[in-house]
Write a structure and sequence with these properties.
The chain has helices spanning about 30-40, 45-50, 80; strands at about 5-15, 15-20, 65, 90-95. With about 100 residues, it is α+β, with helices and mostly antiparallel strands.
């Protein structure tokens, strides 16, 4: 996500839209799996982790930063990421109702 594209719709599923917004001043990147982990806690999440996920409204009222980034993802081995052109910080995710679905 580059600074010039500060917000974008990640995906839409049923009655929900997933949006990402860059909240820092640097280009940032995370994998879709990191976004999913933010939303639901991840595949192997404990009940405590799930309770802090965005799907459970976490602690930020329906939005939260991508905090659990998988640093072993191949994305983190790209030149852009390693040389510092991108960071994994400063991306907020929020879920909103799809107005096209009742």
């Amino acid at each position: 996500m580059s600074v010039k594209d500060a917000a974008w719709q990640v995906t839409a599923e049923g009655g929900t839209w997933v949006h990402a917004k860059l909240v820092g001043d640097n280009n940032a990147v995370v994998a879709f799996n990191d976004i999913v982990t933010t939303i639901n806690g991840g595949v192997n999440a404990t009940n405590e982790v799930k309770a802090q996920s965005l799907a459970q409204c976490g602690t930020a009222g329906g939005q939260m930063g991508v905090g659990m980034v998988n640093s072993t993802d191949l994305l983190c081995d790209t030149d852009e990421f390693v040389k510092g052109s991108f960071t994994s910080d400063s991306i907020a995710i929020w879920l909103v109702h799809n107005p096209d679905v009742d």
